[in-house]
Amino acid sequence: NFTSPSSVRKKQENLYLVNWNSKKTANIYTADWRGNAGWLYRALDALLERYAIRDAVTIVDYPNWVAGAKYLRKTYGFRIVTDYMDDYTGFAATAEPFLKENCEELLRTSDMVAASSSFLYDIAKKFTEESRICLIRNGTQTAHFQKALTMQRAENAKAQPGFEKNAAGKVIGYYGAVAHWFAYEKVCYVADALPECEVVIIGEVTAHRDDLEKRKNIRLLGEMDYDRLPEHLA
Predict the structure, then answer these.
(1) Potential cystine with 180: which of 97, 174, 201, 207 (Cβ 3.0-4.6 Å)?
(2) Half-sphere exposure in the Cβ direction for 135 (13 Å, CA)
């Protein structure tokens, strides 16, 4: 967001989080900087000057940053890499009409595009040379979740209030967001078709809560620390 005070905070070694305050926009999702990016350019100049940054690569995760990325390349020669991780226009909170235009401009102007799926790869090909696109599919930290294999299930169930096994001992689990794109009707179908099973959902629920809560064997545990997921997986 752009409502918090401007700051530079060290998160860990060689990793800093920069926040800028602006009265022109509230957050990146609604920020339209076309013809109105002067304050952003000045903020970037000040940051680079303060920390003596003279060589860098700009990795862009959201299309509305395209104005800043293009400015950094034109002024300082920083190359642009787009982390094309999702279909940005498919989310309810990102329905601004200029988002699609910014996304297309970002794909056209990037030195490299890293697409997370074949679907996105094919979209990127419409706007930039295929030699500039690479396919890097979503992955996971396998070592983190393999911890579940070494955990004793009985002890884990006792250690997690609200997660005791049902009589049949059959649990269907999911962790991740439950948003408007979540296929809740399929989850409800599974719960209805398998009443002897317990469907446990870990993650923030921003849509479909009423339908999910109607099923007695669907349990919504809410968002949870990443480190606790292997225990539930076990």
Answers:
(1) 207
(2) 10
